[in-house]
Amino acid sequence: MYADDVKLYNSSSNCMILSNDITSIHTWSRDWLIPLNMSKCRVLHLGGQNPRNCYYLNGVELSKTNTCSDLGVTITSDLSWSEHVACITRKANKTVYLITKAFGKANVKVIVALYKIYIRPILEFANSIWSPHLVRDNDLLEATQRRVTRLPFGQIRPSYQDRLKLMCLPILSRRRKRGDAITVFRALTDGNSPIRYLFPLNTDGRTRGHAFKLLKEKFRTDVRKYFITNRVFEFWNSLPAHVVSSKNLTEFKIRLDLHQRD
């Protein structure tokens, strides 16, 4: 019996509470004969103003790290997503290489199917959390899709935009924006959504448009500025009423796609 990927977190102002929690975990693991692997225990401090307190496990100071992987998402101490983008593009490009070796110059239909099944999910997993705002990160992601669209063609091939049209593929930043809107719709319509509180509605009766307009959140840092609640604000509030008032998720996706196509 073992416990894997156990994480404890708290505000830096509650360092004593976190220390006590670490002690409790150690006591529990000792009592149940499930020893903790000290070499795999790390402390990740988040934010530039973090005092970077020291934490101890069984009297031994835990080593600090600047990155960790949580459910497939690489998190860094400065809350930048560049390292995660680099990680997933490397993984996706390896998959592109394997597909190239296995299928050679397959036709458009086959390449699109392989891309949607094996490559694009790598580039989009949990992107409502890490959606990048830096141009270099966006370009890195798009370069992988650009590479895939070349596979069915020879040396003389259409432009990237024409290849996207032929293969019925949107640019990835557009799909991320679509994903953000889907996340908001789910949060607002699912009564049991654990992230519903992240999207307070603007109850000011003077606002124009649909009845599900989000309330503008104040922010002081780029980290918060590009968090989903602020990132999706203008796009969601600009959607037509018939889109956001969809009866279910499937209907919402269809209406959203039609709206973006116009």
UniProtKB/TrEMBL annotation:
Origin species: Zophobas morio
Name listed for the protein in its UniProt record: RNA-directed DNA polymerase from mobile element jockey
